[in-house]
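Q: I'm writing a short methods note and want an example of a predicted protein-small molecule complex. Could you take the sequence and the SMILES for pyridoxal-5'-phosphate and return the bound structure as tokens? Please keep the output block clean; save any remarks for afterwards.
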Amino acid sequence: MHSKTGAAALGSMSGRARIHNFGAGPAVLPLSVVEECRDALPNLSQSGFGLLEVSHRSPTFQNVVDSAMARVRRTLSVPEDYTVLFLQGGASLQFYMTALNLLRPGEQADYLVTGGWSQKALKEAKRVGDAQAIWDDSVNGFRSVPQVGEYAVRDDAVYLHYTSNNTLYGTQFHHLPDSEGKLLLLDASSDIAGVPCDIAAHDLIYAGAQKNLGPSGVTLVILSPRALSRVGDDLPTMLDYNVHASKGSLFNTPNTFGIFVLDRVFNWLEENGGLEGSIARNQEKSGLLYAELDKTDFWRPHADEGSRSVMNVTWLIHDDALEPVFLAEAEAAGMGGLKGHRSVGGIRASLYNGCQLDSVQALISFMHQFESNHR
Ligand SMILES: Cc1ncc(COP(=O)(O)O)c(C=O)c1O
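A: Understood, no commentary inside the block.
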């Protein structure tokens, strides 16, 4: 089931061969998807038009959008009456757009602040209404996510917003937060299609594609009818979910390349066991890595055990002077993208859908060797 990373394929013509890429995003894609992109560049689906040169109004591209939408719905079990959009501006634009569309001035919105991205989402929502953190773990270095019962949604809140996976700190929700009947909003940028997610239990989900779904520049947004019906009138055109929904994500020129790649990634997922296959692979990869980290106190995993992420594994080395050595030796051994985010430091291995088991095995045997050399 696991295709190889293609370490020896593509890219060996000039410079180094493909590395084991643990970058946090844009991130490694399945090699077969990269090859499909290459093949479509001069001529997309035998249309005569190249992938980068085809009109978004053409039947050829409409087929791509339709296919991508259908695959998203199938793979993620999106309820029929939910709306699927492919937007631009990244998850960062959604921080503001969600609030602008769902909140009126003075109305309340509650946020679970579990890392830098939810802090940013909250900051943007404050521009629109009375947005507040009802749980914030910054004083503890964002090592955990809250359990149900550790926060209370305000009676008049319109929605509860959370970030399912905290890309920077390597923590993740393994349960559904309780929005107490309010709309439930989710930033799923770094674990969409990589972990179980009950779409029907949410009202708005957004995710930048560049980790689990494709390249940067396309953002998947999924809305419930309840959320869409709250969208206010007379919003700036490009920030209005109803505008994009009424035009099938083709109100203006979309990221045609990004939508093509997203369709191919979902096709790859479907050919490899669907969401269940992806969940099982991500559990296996992260399970192996955490087991290695837990073996000795040479390594210091960052996240508390019950909140550990299967997508971004973060850790320190007992002697922080060894961290640059680790990164340099890993790079020389063909492993890249392992430097922790600048706000956290240490090491981070991102194990998104495109990251194959053989990459994780290579990392673990490197760690083994590193530990015995530097103990
Ligand atoms: C959880 C999460 N939310 C939001 C963002 C910001 O995404 P973008 O760069 O697409 O705006 C990121 C990027 O890493 C992320 O991991």
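A: Remarks, as requested: The chain has a mean pLDDT of 95. Residues 25, 90-92, 117, 163, 167, 187, 189-190, 208 surround pyridoxal-5'-phosphate (CB under 6 Å).
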